[in-house]
Amino acid sequence: MDSETLRIFAAVAAELSITRAAARLGRAPSNVTTRIQQLEIDLGTELFVRTGKRLSLSPAGERLVDYGARMLALEDEARQVVSGGGHAGVLRLGSMESTAAARLPAILAAFHQRQPATRMQLQTGPSMPLLEQVRNGQLDCAFVALPADFGGVEALADLGLQARAVWREQLLLAMPSGALAGGDIDHLAIRSLAAFPQGCTYRGVAEALLGLHGSTEWRVQEMASYHAMIACVAAGGCVTLLPESVLNLSPAREQLQTWPAGPADTLLVWRERSFTPALEHLLALLPEVADGADA
After folding, report:
1. Direct distance between the N- and C-terminal alpha carbons of the chain, in angstroms, rounded to an integer
2. What is the Cα–Cα distance from 102 to 218, expressed in whole angstroms?
3. CA quadruple 155, 161, 162, 163: dihedral sign
4. Backbone dihedral angles phi then psi of residue 236, each to the nearest 5 degrees
5. What is the pLDDT of residues 114-141, one digit of tens each?
6. Which residues pair with 143 in a beta bridge?
7. CA 245 to CA 143: how far, in whole Å?
8. How far apart are CA 224 and CA 222, in angstroms?
9. Least confident of 18-22, 23-27, 180-184
10. pLDDT in tens, 160-178
């Protein structure tokens, strides 16, 4: 089970198609099929379920996706560290949607300008899943916000993680104009919250601020983007909580009413013993670019 075979497996697992994986890898489909069959023989189990021309991952294949990604990441990390940065490698970066929208464009542009040979892979999601992916080696680092009950930066050390505070966001509860009939959020005329799925720190802030726990009046509409959330708020259907830096990007900003929900720090988190040259370059860049991008 060499690294090239794992890369082929990862491509087939992502595409669920030999033809598309072969095109992505620049290989002949027959070669990809042979390598997958050899890997299955080597492991003594089927990695894909074949139904006609359709592929799906078997339970064993689903487990190998995680292990394969970690093994390839460890190989890349070793090459970067041993070569002293001579091997440019890949930086697998995780980020909250809000950070990706409002903060990362300047960071990624500056990083690419200074480290053009390093490939950047960006994945967005809620903070808690991102933390777990950093911890288990699926990501090299991630921009996250810690929940109030997490235990702070000290609790990260117990997970083998380190962190650096990068931005302090001002959180706002956004609502349709006129929604505060009584002058404060206890008298909101709307009882619907638009938010990301569980694991999002800002969702937890909103639920605590609005008293959703144990409430039968409120319902949560789970959405995948701030664009959708702001659109629903502008349409008068719900409220949402988001950083001011994100709301300022929306043309609907002037149509909405807001309520201050306090500050929240954005941290860059990485594993203690996984300090690659690519990550070192990113950390060196942050003070300069982050200060310029701060709201």
Report:
1. 49
2. 29
3. negative
4. 90, 10
5. 888 888 889 999 999 999 889 888 888 9
6. 95, 268
7. 15
8. 7
9. 180-184
10. 899 999 999 999 999 998 8
Return the half-sphere exposure (C-beta side, CA atoms, 13 A cut-off) of residue 89.
Answer: 27
Please state, in angstroms and rounded to a whole number, the distance separating the CA atoms of residues 75 and 6: 11
192-195 and 239-243 as β-strands: parallel, antiparallel, unpaired?
Answer: parallel
Q: Among 88-97, 176-185, 193-202, 221-230, which is the least confidently predicted range?
A: 176-185
Question: Of all residues in the chain, what percent carry a pLDDT higher than 90?
Answer: 45
What's the confidence (pLDDT) of residue 4? 85
Of 97, 106, 111, nearest in space to 143 by CA: 97
The pLDDT value given to residue 77: 66
Hey, what are 171's tokens?
Answer: 């959180």
β-strands 161-176, 239-243: how paired?
Answer: antiparallel
Asked if 56 and 16 touch (Cβ cutoff 8 Å), the reply is: yes
Q: What is the pLDDT of residue 87?
A: 47
Query: 277-293 and 59-82 helices cross at what angle (nearest 10)?
Result: 90
User: How much of the chain is in helix, strand and coil states, percent to nearest 5?
Assistant: 45, 25, 30
What is d(CA 192, CA 178) in angstroms, rounded to the nearest whole number?
15
pLDDT at 96 over 90: yes
Ordered by where they begin, the domains of the chain are 3-71 (1.10.10.10), 88-164+266-293 (3.40.190.10), 169-264 (3.40.190.10)
- The tokens for 238 are 């719900």
State the pLDDT at residue 188.
86
Read off the pTM.
0.73
- Look at residue 237 and give its three-state secondary structure: coil
**Residue 195 host element (H or E):** strand 192-195
Alpha helices in 163-276 (DSSP H): 201-210, 226-234, 244-247
DSSP secondary structure, 141-181, as one string: EEEE---TTS-HHHHHHHTTEEEEEEEEEEEEEEEETT-BT
